[in-house]
Amino acid sequence: MSSRALNDDEVYSEMKKMVAFIKQEALEKAREIKIKKGQGRKGHVSAKSKWSGILRDRKTRFVISAGFPCYLLCSNRIQFLQAEEEFNIEKVLVSQKFQNVPKEGYSLKNYSHSCPLFTPQAKVVRQEAINIDATFQRKIKQAEVQKRIAQSNHINKSRLRVLQARQRMLEELFAETRAKLPDVTRDITQYRALLKDLILQGFYALMEHEVVITCRQKDAKDVKNAIEEARRQYKEALGSDVDAKVDQEFLPQGSAGGVILSAQSGKIKVNNTLETRLDILEENMLPQIRVLLFGHSPNRKFFN
Question: Mean pLDDT throughout 225-247?
Fold first, then answer.
């Protein structure tokens, strides 16, 4: 029969067979060692001599070729040592559990068959107990995570409800204030002084020689008087005069009051109506209003 070189698949198949054979032999030898130790055999046999015994006892059945990978031997040797370590652990458990039992009539050989720690079922039970503990710990961690998530969501929802309630309160406050704007014009003396200040502020903002002022129709007379007083103060402050006149187009009937100043044919405007002044107040004084209504935030550490 002609010989031929093996391909990669055949080589891999042969190697798997070798590994399976050596593993089976190692397991059988491990069982033999356990039985010998259970019978009270004295003396210590090194792992190297045990492994040599496995190969020596089976040399008539299997011969390792010179080209066989050595890492396969190392892998099966590690499995053998692990089996021996498990046996030693079980022996220690037995000795700890039955250390108070009288030694007369008892030996590891006689007791190894009846001890539940040596049975395969005991290994399965211990492994399942470990799995149950791991599952229980994992579920505890998952429950803690879910609890933290729920707590965080609850806190965020509570904060959102508080912010919404505060915003509604501010909106109600500004709406109530806007409804009371017409009451400002009821005091004629105070309203005339306010018109003069609004016009003078517009003069300072525009810095123009010709200004057109738009007001309510019923405020036209008071605005003309306020213009003269504002021009006098403006001239005293800046040393220049301004020509201001009332526009023939008036503010809408629903306006609460105030004036609009424009210059350069309406290209520049200063809106000083009462509604606009309230809008500016809402924007600029909102932080102070929040502090007055709700106090300082407990999380804020620095104040300007």
Answer: 89
Q: Rounded to an integer, what distance in angstroms lies between the CA atom of residue 192 and that of residue 227?
A: 11
Tell me the average pLDDT of the chain.
Answer: 76
Q: What domains sit in the chain, N to C, each tagged with a CATH number?
A: 8-121 (no CATH), 181-294 (3.30.2320.30)
Sign (positive/negative) of CA torsion 276, 278, 281, 283?
A: negative
Alpha-helical segments (H) within the chain: 8-38, 47-57, 70-97, 108-111, 120-179, 188-206, 220-238, 274-284, 286-294
Kindly report each contact of residues 79-85 with a partner whose C-beta sits within 8 Å and lies 24 or more positions away, as own/partner.
79/23, 79/26, 79/27, 80/26, 80/27, 80/29, 80/30, 80/47, 80/50, 80/51, 80/54, 81/47, 83/26, 83/27, 83/30, 84/30, 84/33, 84/47
- Cα separation, 9 vs 171, in Å, equals 82
Q: Is the pTM of this model over 0.85?
A: no
Return the residue matching tokens 């015994």: 53
Residue 245: what are its φ and ψ, rounded to 5°?
Answer: -140, 160
Q: What is the pLDDT of residue 107?
A: 46
Q: What pLDDT score does 149 carry?
A: 93
**List of residues 6+ apart from 195 with CB closer than 8 A:** 215, 219, 222, 223, 226, 258, 259
Side-chain-facing half-sphere of 130: CA atoms under 13 Å:
5
| Cα distance between residue 11 and residue 17, in whole Å | 10
The two three-digit tokens of residue 281, written as one number: 């107040």
Cα–Cα nearest to 28, from 75, 93, 76, 69: 76
